[in-house]
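Before relying on records like the one below, remember that each one covers exactly one chain. Contacts with other chains, cofactors or solvent are not represented anywhere in the record.
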Amino acid sequence: MVIRNAKKYDAATLARLAGELGYPTTTAKMKRRLEKLLSNIDHAIFVAELDAVVGWIHVSVVQSLESDQFAEIHGLVVTEAHRNSGIGTQLIAKAEIWAQKKRCRRIRVRTNIKRERTRQFYKILGYTVSKTQEVFDKQI
């Protein structure tokens, strides 16, 4: 397996995998998002590739007034056929190394309380729950 930086031509596969994560999108929308993020040095998108791309992770540096900068994993997905094979763990490790190079001393990930397998996965990797919160959205 190879873990590499995502490329624009990965858009269709990343869109399909986003659907597996529960966030369906079109290839065109993914391509637009990908192009923006790939040009931002505070974001990284890595893909796991066997014969084809079987997973991806998106991580970024978060800067705010209330705390020192940290890294946040915005999305991680491995195709159903390749889950529980260590690919997610390797993608996390790649994101953590990237975050350290960006001088982040902390990395955060958020997951829906309903995703019990996902929550256990992060706990096994040493992540701890630091708070519980509600997320409010408003269409504007």
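The chain has a mean pLDDT of 95.
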